[in-house]
Write the structure tokens for this entry.
Amino acid sequence: MALWDFLLIGWAQGLYGALCSQGIGGCLLAAAAGWQLACWGLRLTESELAGPAHLPDGLHTRRRNAVAERLQGARSGRWLGGLLQAAGALLMAAALVALARTVANG
């Protein structure tokens, strides 16, 4: 577990260092990109994309397969949406911390 922590901390410090070296404009751009990633993820996890969760017994086989395929696609969309939200939040947080340090240090 210590190796995983070391790699994660190194990756986060590398991202933070790269953002700090870009200055105020780069930090603002990265924060906006993180916000946009999180918004895209939120759109993918909306409940109306998921469709109905219960299949009535009277559906024909062709219709049942189409609904099952749509539900499978919705599950993939929710998984991808969650991943985009996490990546966007990480990028935005790192960018805002780098922005604060850049502004404070001049």
